[in-house]
Amino acid sequence: MTPHQPTLTPLGPALAEALPRLYGLKADPLLNELIQALSAALVRGDLQLPLEGPAPEGIESAEHWPEGHRQALVRCGWIQRAEQTSAPEEDCPSPVVLNERGLGWRRWLMLLEATMAELEQRARLAVQPPLSLESRQAASERARRRGTLDPRQQEAVEALLSQGLVLLGGGPGTGKTSTVMQMLAAVLEERPAWRIHLAAPTGKAAARLRQAITVAGSSLSRPLRLQLAAIPCTTLHRLLESRGDGFGRNREQPLTLDLLVVDEVSMLDLPLMAALLEALPPAAQLLLVGDPEQLAPVGPGAVLQELQAPARRASLGNAAIELTTAYRNDGALALAAERLRRGDGRGFLQGLSQLGDSDNLSWWRCASGRLPTALLKRLQAHQAQLSELASRWTPGQHELALELLACLERCVVLAPTRRGPWGVERLNQQLLGADWSRGPGGWPPGTPVLCQRNLPEQGLANGDVGVVVKAEGERRLLFWGSQEPGDDSGEGMAGSRLVHPSRMAAAEAAFAITIHKSQGSQYQEVLVLMPEGESRWDRRLLYTALTRARQEAVLITPEGQGWLPV
């Protein structure tokens, strides 16, 4: 399990006080602890507390874990002894559920089961009107020849021509994007009038998806290439018409689509997936694409990881396809990522010790009390590049705006923590000096800016990265994207948009960002800070960080093995 900053929030104590009173229960310290631990787990994104292993966060009476806390639930009537057969009161059922996987809130586990049931049902449904077996096989054969697809990729093409849901997984370099492109081309050949939409959880991930599909489609015939280029691509929040307190698209106002493609599904939490399914017409197809070995989403309920459970995979049948053949050789970086993916910690560490100067992965070991000088020099050089480009930019210089935004992707520092000697806040503060506390309205031009919330009225999503510029003597924030018809949230231009700093509800400097916030993005060079944790890091954390690099990565660790993930 990944160590986190303390996640106990006012929600835990409030629930610990309110729930026993609502159920008319006597005070019980162990029950109080359990409620707070369940609340902390939800904030971390975990729907259940496993009853095996060490006491989780929020449990102070570790000597009573888990049996004493289980008995507290029995005493209050929230779970039953084995010999009890009477059902709980239907008018006030227990707020928690105990099953073979642990303990969780009833409401969230019911939402999880309902969501999984709908995904499984969509996987069993045939697309209407159905294509004949001969038509499907002919279309998948054309796609195979066109894209030199392997058998699993060809299976994915045929699945999308027949099934209501397809789950396509695979690691970096396994051909997910080229497979999706051939899948879409096959659909457009057979169903040219279909309404298709591409989406991703963040703006940056959506932009990358659009670009990748366009590049991959360059080998298609001109009619297919034009059809593919015309498919809209947005964030999921924009597609669902996020309104802050809900979504404009729902069961009463469904999406008008025949096929929805969602990339970076590892970032989808349970509430967003549930909202998506509610808004998607029953007859519409859903193609989910992602790497199941990446980090779980920040929000509660890791949908893609849940779908990897053997029983879930079996229920999806032929709709679940995993690509395993690597078509891109990224040298030592790819080999290290693959060892992490397999959970081969010993092989990963051995590979690091054998790295050479010509490898695209470097390993720096240094004292953990302060930031490495070489790291600061590399970032200061990147800061100077951004500053120089920003100083030359003026409104209307579209090409320079795109060059400046592209420069953001040349280098980034990723770390698992926000605070501490190797936390992202310390690094950003050191680079900005006295300007750090002034916020984006006072930061120097060229400073990267991370959007920390979904801001649909600005066309921005949580995790989008922009840069500070000057327009007519005032600070503005330049982001990827273009203003859409009827959108008056920002000053739009082709390929980019300007946002006033006052319209950013939350923003942080982004020379360094957390690994969680980097999901859906890629950079030419990634420098990864891996400090020692209170307990061992989850291997998905480092795997996600290293696979953000397109060309090279630097892994920076303390001496010893206290940083090594499991």
Describe the structure.
- Helices cover 38% and strands 17% of the residues.
- The termini are close together.
- Helix 2 crosses helix 3 (67-76).
- The strands form four sheets. It has a six-stranded parallel sheet. It has a six-stranded antiparallel sheet with strand order 15-16-14-13-12-17.
- The chain has 20 helices and 20 strands.
- The protein has helices spanning 11-22, 29-44, 67-76, 106-124, 133-147, 151-160, 176-190, 203-216, 222-229, 236-239, 270-279, 303-306, 310-316, 331-342, 345-353, 373-392, 398-407, 424-432, 515-518, 539-546; strands at 48-49, 96-99, 102-105, 165-170, 196-200, 233-235, 259-262, 285-290, 320-323, 361-365, 411-415, 448-451, 465-471, 474-480, 491-493, 496-499, 507-509, 512-514, 523-529, 549-557.
- It has 566 residues and is an alpha/beta fold.
* Strand-pairing-aware structural class: alpha/beta
Strand order of the largest sheet: 6-5-7-8-4-9
State the end-to-end CA separation.
Answer: 9 Å
Number of helices: 20
- Contiguous low-pLDDT stretches (5 residues minimum) are 1-8, 82-89, 482-494
Strand content bin:
15-25%
Mean pLDDT: 88
Provide the gyration radius in Å.
Answer: 25 Å
Specify the overall morphology: globular
Biggest β-sheet strands, sense, barrel: 6 strands, parallel
Count of individual beta strands: 20
Query: Level of helix content?
Result: 25-40%
Highlighted features:
566 residues; alpha/beta; 20 strands
What is shown here, in short?
With 566 residues, the chain is an alpha/beta fold. It is built from 20 helices and 20 strands.
